[in-house]
Amino acid sequence: MSMLVSTQWLADHLGAPDLVVLDASAHLPDAGRDPKAEFAQAHIPGARFLNLATLVDPASTVPAALPDPATFAQRMAALGVQETDHVVLYDDSYVKTAARAWFICRLHGMPNVSLLDGGMPKWRSEGRPVESGTPDVEASSFAATPGDLAVRTKADVLANLDSKAEQLVDARGAKRFTGEMPDFRPDVADGHIPGSRNLPFDHLFNADETYKSPEEIRAAFVKAGVDLDRPLVTTCGGGVTAAVLLFALALAGKSDVALYDGSWAEWGTDPATPKQTGPAA
Fold it and tell me: Is the CATH number of domain 151-267 3.40.605.10?
């Protein structure tokens, strides 16, 4: 199974009994968009709405934390997903939220998960069919299991500032990384975690919003000052575009990686955490 499927592949396989297509669109608060309403207006035929923005751990103190196994299993069951299904995720979001959904699925033991390369924008640009409304779905039974991806906490990242066992790579835009552009959230500090490298997530895409080749992905990380022979942790504003970096790294064959889920939303609101402005050291 490929981690990426093309729009043509998906068009050829729509309706297959073991295929589930999920719309994983979510948006930044300042985007002014309603992904649920947009899904109801137009989505890929047969797709179901994941409602990614609400797929979080309700008991966690981390902002919009990754869902716990029970919450994830409940959502998959409500969407009629079974553990053996081939799930194809897509989005219509600037911040490429399908990668976050991919990380969540893999974290909870789903091996057969792909992203639609180019997402809804490419599907739409090719004039492919869409449908409206909200589909009726027959619920399933679903059991989450431990997956093969790793997560780091704030305590882990703090400890790593001394040990430097893992590199930190920040997926935010350069001006937010340096602190030249203030965070859109008024209670969040400017800058980045000390010692981080910066690779804006959108540097990993072609003009048609498809992912670059594995060779180009590796080159982008190297250009950002990352040593691909060493383990790394990705971070961003809230754990979303950091997952884009992780998906791209998986395409490039690198597996000694982890996600700092709290990211700058957690780090930047804690007065006790060290912060740095300016370019990467």
Answer: no
